[in-house]
Design brief:
The chain is an alpha/beta fold and about 170 residues long. It has seven helices and seven strands; from the N terminus they run βαβαββαββαααβα. It has helices spanning about 15-25, 35-40, 60-70, 100-110, 115-125, 125-135, 150-170, and strands at about 5-10, 30-35, 45-50, 55, 75, 90-95, 140-145. Helix 1 packs across helix 7 (about 150-170) and helix 4 (about 100-110) packs antiparallel against helix 5 (about 115-125). The longest helix has 22 residues, at about 150-170. The chain starts with 5 loop residues before the first strand and ends with a helix. The model has no long low-confidence stretch (mean pLDDT about 95).
Length: about 170
C-alpha cells in the first residue's frame, strides 16, 4: 500500500516532536526526527559557537534519508525545510505557537538569550512558513496552531483524516 510522506516544520519549541511521535503511533507511519538522525550519524559540518549547537550537513542528511523517503510512509520533523527535495513530501504542516507560550517553552529548554530572541523573531515573522511556501507548492503547505493540548488533538485528528483520504485517493 502506498503511504504519504509528511513534513512537520516550524520554529523550535512549537511541538513538532510531540505531534510527530503521537501521529506516528496512531497512523503507523515511520517518524524521523532530523536532529536525532544527525546526532546518531554525526551528520554535522562544524559547530556554531554563537548558537551553541552543531551545524547540520544538509547533503549528508538528504543522502541518509533518500531510500526511506522513496518508500513512503514517513513523517519528517525538522525546523528547516528548504534543503529537502520537493518531491519527497505530499503535504507540509507548519506548526505555529503564540510568542509568549513559545518563549516559556524555549526558556525551559535553557536557550541562551540570543537563541531565544532569534527564535521568537523567527516565529513573529513566520520565517518557517515563508520558507515552506518558497520550497513547496502552496497547496500542500498548511499552518496548524500549537498552543494548548486541545490543539494537539485537533491537529492529530485533522492529519489522520488527511492520511486516510490520501490513501483512498492513491490506492489502485
Amino acid at each position: 500500500m502506498l503511504l504519504p510522506n509528511i513534513l512537520l516544520t516550524g520554529t523550535p519549541g512549537v511541538g513538532k516532536t510531540t505531534l510527530g511521535k503521537e501521529l506516528a503511533s496512531r497512523s503507523g507511519l515511520k517518524y524521523i526526527n532530523v536532529g536525532d538522525l544527525a546526532r546518531e550519524g554525526q551528520l554535522y559540518d562544524g559547530y556554531d559557537e554563537e548558537y551553541d549547537c552543531p551545524i547540520l550537513d544538509e547533503e549528508r542528511v538528504v543522502d541518509e534519508l533518500e531510500n526511506q523517503m522513496s518508500e513512503g510512509g514517513v513523517i519528517v520533523d525538522y525546523h528547516g525545510c528548504d534543503f529537502f527535495p520537493e518531491r519527497w513530501f505530499h503535504i507540509v504542516f507548519v506548526l505555529t505557537t503564540d510568542n509568549s507560550i513559545l518563549y516559556n517553552r524555549l526558556e525551559t529548554r535553557g536557550y541562551n538569550e540570543k537563541k531565544l530572541k532569534d527564535n521568537i523573531q523567527c516565529e513573529i515573522f513566520q520565517v518557517l512558513h515563508e520558507e515552506a511556501l518558497a520550497s513547496y507548492k502552496e497547496e500542500i503547505v498548511h499552518q496548524l496552531p500549537s498552543n494548548k493540548p486541545e490543539d494537539l488533538e485537533d491537529n492529530i485528528s485533522q492529519i489522520l483524516k488527511w492520511i486516510e483520504q490520501w490513501v483512498k485517493d492513491h490506492s489502485s
